[in-house]
Amino acid sequence: xxxxxxxxxxxxxxxxxxxxxxxxxxxxxxxxxxxxxxxxxxxxxxxxxxxxxxxxxxxxxxxxxxxxxxxxxxxxxxxxxxxxxxxxxxxxxxxxxxxxxxxxxxxxxxxxxxxxxxxxxxxx
Length: 124
Fold this sequence. Notes:
alpha/beta
């Protein structure tokens, strides 16, 4: 088993992903899911702008780090759902945010994942 995958599986209470639901999933849902031991996720495009996406990512990271410091428990990892289709006008900008903040898990949908995989594999 891949070491990174083993680390992820060791940090979850059950192997479940809180689905990245369009217009429903938010940082609050991601954070609470991770605190309860399941992988929390959200579609990147739920954050209506790249600036808001960056705020969401920073909030998730800060809140989960604080949870771990306060409780001594490891939160489950979080995930983003990246629309890799060429019609995604934010593709390049959001990909830069993925590169910068390195979400533990990246799910791709709609389109060729090549560019996303290249970035994600560069950090994990």
